[in-house]
Fold this sequence. Notes:
The protein has 12 helices and 18 strands. It is an alpha/beta fold. Strand 14, helix 8 (274-283) and strand 15 (289-292) form a beta-alpha-beta unit.
Amino acid sequence: xxxxxxxxxxxxxxxxxxxxxxxxxxxxxxxxxxxxxxxxxxxxxxxxxxxxxxxxxxxxxxxxxxxxxxxxxxxxxxxxxxxxxxxxxxxxxxxxxxxxxxxxxxxxxxxxxxxxxxxxxxxxxxxxxxxxxxxxxxxxxxxxxxxxxxxxxxxxxxxxxxxxxxxxxxxxxxxxxxxxxxxxxxxxxxxxxxxxxxxxxxxxxxxxxxxxxxxxxxxxxxxxxxxxxxxxxxxxxxxxxxxxxxxxxxxxxxxxxxxxxxxxxxxxxxxxxxxxxxxxxxxxxxxxxxxxxxxxxxxxxxxxxxxxxxxxxxxxxxxxxxxxxxxxxxxxxxxxxxxxxxxxxxxxxxxxxxxxxxxxxxxxxxxxxxxxxx
Length: 374
């Protein structure tokens, strides 16, 4: 654990203080507690667009049913980049970022021992809205995602409901990739992709790679589209079939060539620009399915005739379901994903603000940045 302090020996539970016993490797710095009366932890705080720093914040307050976790590693994702740039319609400031998480259980129980490494589902759900009542809590009307509508996991400790945890025999680097890959897996499920389908994935970042992997696992033929050759190479390593660099090749012509003039049966849009939103509808086959994952950053104008003429199914895909988490963990445990090639940079917590700034200034330089808190 190096110089990093060990786990808390008590944490607030509403108006009570709950004492916990932890393994030897989580022994406490009692001298510090005696000196200060309360621990304070370091966290990555986005104070305003373009302004991030490391601050000392209060230790987590746990509610009944929460599990105290030591955060091991957190990944930056495209939504973090948008928040840094002031482009996210959902985030408010200041905000502790972080929802791609590997953490270790501090206090165990009969189902999950202390020291267990977990990924976590970072979404909340109310249980009462239309989406929740339909069994789709990933699209809860009142969802608050860690690091977006509420403070996230880029801190030394976090308290999370037990049902949001997914234990797995994976490395911290792998556990950090679980959540972003699940978003792509869920999009493939929303598109009802099967082995007979040809699926075009627009955008081969972390979420897009999840869609490539999920479609390939279902036996579908995949066509991967991006403007970055490195991302297209990773897509093929993930199981992708044909590739199109749309910065150099005519997208429509190439898609028709690869599909005998019909177009792909399913288009999954994982970029979030007006151009790719329109292209998805324009390029998909008649009676095909379009699945949107990203938010376009401005209004999108469509030729609505295509919706009717092609009799399209146009679907949104938000977050992920528990079965998506289990499927991704299975993929990673089987070592069927190029983890080391996907993660381009790992930095310490103190270096994280500069790393996010560098990513914003030069997006093509990085595929995935992870922050190590050990």
